[in-house]
Amino acid sequence: MRNKEALLSYVLQLGDNSLITAQRMIERVTGEPELEEELANANFALDYIGQARMFYSYAGELEGNGRTEDDFAYLRDAQEFRNFLLVEQPNGHFGESIVRQVLFETFYLLQLQGLMSCGDQRLAEIAACAEKEIRYHLRHARKWLVRLGDGTEESHERVQQALVQLWRYTGEFFETGDFDGPDLTQLQQEWNKQIDAVLDEATLSLPENQGIATGGRAGQHSEYFGFLIAEMQHMQRAFPGATW
Amino acid sequence: MVVADITREQVFEWLREVPDPEIPVLSITDLGIVRDVTIGDDVRVALSPTYSGCPATEMIEQSVIAALRKQGIADISIERSLSPPWTTDWISDEGREKLLAYGIAPPAKGGGKRALLDGVRVIACPQCASTDTELISEFGSTACKASYRCVACLEPFEYFKCI
Questions:
Q1: Deepest in the core among A98, A164, A188, B62, taking most CB within 10 A?
Q2: What is the pTM of this model?
Q3: Is there a contact between A129 and B53 (Cβ–Cβ < 8 Å)?
Q4: Which residues from chain B sit within 8 angstroms of residue A139, using beta carbons?
């Protein structure tokens, strides 16, 4: 029973990371610097919503109380969400969103690749679908990071600042719990290696150790989170049970 | 019609008529998303979703049910089959030709392994067949397409991304 609860909590975290990432991307819609970026961003958000739905469906089955995807997305309060603090951070300027994506997606891709061979068959299947999409996303975000970091003095300075700003939220990725999926020590080594490589290519420097901000998994979110879900859940809260 | 009288082949034949809602020139069998048909107490159709966020997934399920209802089948169930994950390699040769004729460059084979990454892609223009083409955007009008331009005939066109 304990194992099942731990698995449920883990699956919900995967769903929440996807949904909250999608919500932040949706906030960017119509605000991207160019048309191609609009298409990319909206496509990515759609992928993340699709992934969140798969995780939530599975969570509903694991829990066995008949909760649906929509119940998980729209009818939980902030403290019931388990997503990483990083993904809920405000979009900021374009470069800041790109830094956030590279930090998160480098982790998420490794996590999915680990899950593809995990003992839980359903999770492995979902991971195999999602992995292909995230590879595509990450390639895109990395290209931008390199372009901005190794771009003008101003673009370099601004993404370097964003990196310093967001770095503290990455430690949370590697905190262990009752169920962690792939081995996190190994995953952290690989993540560090890949991040080092992309920062090097982007001529950015690794921020100094500044301690880690944590609490997402326990439902302790940053002050931005309440506003995010207030907007996301508005329709269901204002018109309970509304469908169309 | 009594379920017992129906053959699997017949159901596949009927499903050949169900179009993909976003690229209606393709049927769902051309796309390779009909994984299996099982005839038991009901007619059970296993479908593989393409991209996880594809908004067409539900619509395709509804169209399958509607198409089989039209043939007089009352008991239908749809199963979403995630594993193995769909890849563009499952698009049939006939489907590839239809895409080309429709003006969309079909995906390169071997998508599952290379999965859109880094490999050098030679993409021929669906209008003039020139391979002198360039990428405009990795993204397009739907999640499954990228935007290209032909340098030879100057025609912009869509490329079905391979995954």
A1: A98
A2: 0.88
A3: no
A4: 116-118
In a domain, residue A138? The reply is yes
Q: Long-range contacts made by residues A152-155, C-beta under 8 angstroms, separation at least 24?
A: A155/A95
Minimal Cα–Cα distance from A212 to chain B, Å?
33
Mean pLDDT of B67-85: 91
Q: What is the pLDDT of residues A47-67, one digit of tens each?
A: 999 999 999 999 999 999 999
Q: Is A53 on the interface with B (CB under 8 A)?
A: yes
Size of interface A-B (CB pairs under 8 A): 76
For domain B3-80, which CATH number applies: 1.10.10.10, 3.30.300.130, 3.20.20.450, 3.40.190.10? 3.30.300.130
A244 belongs to a structural domain: no
Return d(Cα A115, Cα B42) in angstroms, integer. 34
User: Parallel, antiparallel, or unpaired for β B156-160 and B145-150?
Assistant: antiparallel
**CA separation for the pair A23, A46 (Å, rounded):** 10
Q: Which two tokens stand for residue A223?
A: 């002050």
pLDDT band at B119 (very low <50, low <70, confident <90, very high): low
The rounded distance, in Å, linking the Cα atoms of B145 and A224 is 34
> Which CATH number does the domain housing residue A35 bear?
1.20.1260.10
Q: What is the ipTM of this complex?
A: 0.75
Within a domain: residue A139?
yes
> pLDDT tens, B5-21?
789 999 999 999 999 98
Query: A47, A115, A122, A132: best mutation site toward chain B, by most B Cβ within 10 Å?
Result: A132
> Is A36 close to B140, i.e. CB distance below 8 A?
no
Neighbouring-strand partners of residue B137: B147
Domain-located, residue A243 = no
- H helices present in chain B, as ranges: 8-15, 28-31, 56-70, 93-102, 111-114
Residue of B nearest to A129 (CA): B85
Does the distance separating the beta carbons of B163 and A51 come in below 8 Å?
Answer: no
Domain-wise residue ranges, chain B: 3-80, 99-160
- Which residue positions in chain A have pLDDT lower than 70? 1-2
- Which of residues 97 through 116 in chain A touch B, CB cutoff 8 A? none
**Overall number of domains in chain A:** 1
Tell me the three state secondary structure of residue B39. strand
